[in-house]
Amino acid sequence: MSAPQPPHAPIQAVVIGCSAGGLEVLRMILPALPDDFPVPIMVVAHVGAASGGYLEDAIRRDCKMPVVEAEERQPVTPGIIHVAPPDYHLMVEADHTFSVSTDPKVHNARPSIDVLLISAAEAWGSGLAAVLLTGANADGADGMAAVKAAGGVCLVQDPATAFASEMPTAAIARGAVDRILVPGRFAPVLAALCNPSRTAELP
Amino acid sequence: MPWRSNSIHSIELDLVLDVLARRHGYDFRGYARASLKRRVSGLAHKLGCATIAELVPRILYDDALLPEVLAGLSVPVTEMFRDPQVFKGIRDQIAPVLATYPRINIWQAGCATGEEVYSLAILLAEAGLLSKTQIYATDINDMALAKAEEGIFPVKTIEKYSENYLKAGGTKALASYFSLGYGYAKIDSAIKDRISFAHHNLVSDGVFCEVNLVVCRNVLIYFDRHLQDRVLGLFDSTLSRSGFLCLGTKENVAFTPAAARFAPVDAPLRLYKKLAESP
């Protein structure tokens, strides 16, 4: 007889990665999060090297949560959406501060979703929720596998709803997935995962 | 390389860093951990090690491996005129001050494969200052230094850098500073002759001359706060009165006591000026 699965430990941080077509999905998910969202959110989106500030502006427009560019040595702060700066990899140190690097591109991307996810998996272990959305390459799959191995929660966009299905499909193929969701479901699931008192609301 | 628990990974990393410091005198223990861990993992993978710990005997007993290890840990990635607005800022805000000096000394700390120091030299040539300038370009990575000193780049990359060069305020064609052939571009000796390349370790080496400008971009991001503070102190010591400092545009020195010795000239571009000694 198998023991009933214990409820997952409360989530302490969320990482969201996306590429082609990701902005539209981010603009469905992030504005739907409440202004008292209790944990930090980090966003890595593949954008051009010269697109300084464009992504934050596009996200900030409708968000209740504050949106800032992640800055090296700054603490990862609850209730804030931190966006990876263009043309740098973003990482999290063990003391939950950001660091950045100009190391080579990973999956032809800088910032790379894998790079942030692998460091965040080490920093938060089972306290991390990772979200992988639409995208046209395999960045993120190694990272999701690291999150899963560390006991974190992996949420992947339903490839059938993705502008580009390769990225979510690659993570699913790796088995690095706990739930496959349509865009409209991410906000309520994240809110429930991060606020155990609302676990009953988990759909 | 498979994911391992935080503690095992950290122990393995500590072992490697310990061997490098105690056996070879290269101390990476003050480097920021997250990117160092990635680089060490990458190095282990490249050298055919199944675990990071397998690097330990290799580094301990095989001295010939050291250059490759140092190259792997410093992973040089540079471009010409990366962040063109910074080079424009140096041209517009710093070069006019340098122009008033009879001789100009510049130190680029962490020159990697040379793209940035050649960009700087080209900028100075166009400002009419290169003939009275001596640039010292240093790095910890001898393999990168050798490449920098060659000054040979694929023609394709020069084409790619041309756009940045023009955005930086370049007044000619970037290719005019190179001789082209066989798909490669070699930097002109008129540019190269003003640059001395040398091995220097920011962790352990000291000041070697007085300079009017220090350029050190995207190097401090790899250091922890303590090491960042030491290095900024080193820059303070090496800079002449009112000397200039140029850091990377995403570098944050807000947590470093030594940063108080510098005043911003252009904060978004990370251009600073050394403050006068307090009496």
Task: Outline the fold blueprint.
The complex is a heterodimer of chains A (203) and B (279).
Chain A: E1 13-18, H1 22-29, E2 41-45, H2 54-60, E3 67-69, E4 81-83, E5 89-92, E6 98-101, H3 113-124, E7 128-132, H4 141-149, E8 153-157, H5 166-173, E9 179-181, H6 186-194
Parallel strand pairs in A: 1-2, 1-7, 2-4, 3-4, 7-8, 8-9
Antiparallel strand pairs in A: 5-6
Helix pairs in contact in A: 3-4, 4-5
Chain B: H1 6-24, H2 33-46, H3 55-61, H4 66-74, H5 84-98, E1 104-109, H6 115-126, E2 133-139, H7 142-150, E3 152-154, H8 155-167, E4 178-181, E5 184-187, H9 189-192, E6 195-199, E7 211-216, H10 225-238, E8 239-247, E9 262-266, E10 271-274
Parallel strand pairs in B: 1-2, 1-7, 2-6, 7-8
Antiparallel strand pairs in B: 3-5, 4-5, 8-10, 9-10
Helix pairs in contact in B: 1-3, 2-4
Please give a handful of descriptors for the protein shown.
heterodimer, A: Rossmann fold, 7-stranded parallel β-sheet, two-stranded antiparallel ribbon, 26% helix, disordered N terminus, B: 279 residues, Rossmann fold, 7-stranded mixed β-sheet, 10 strands, 42% helix, globular
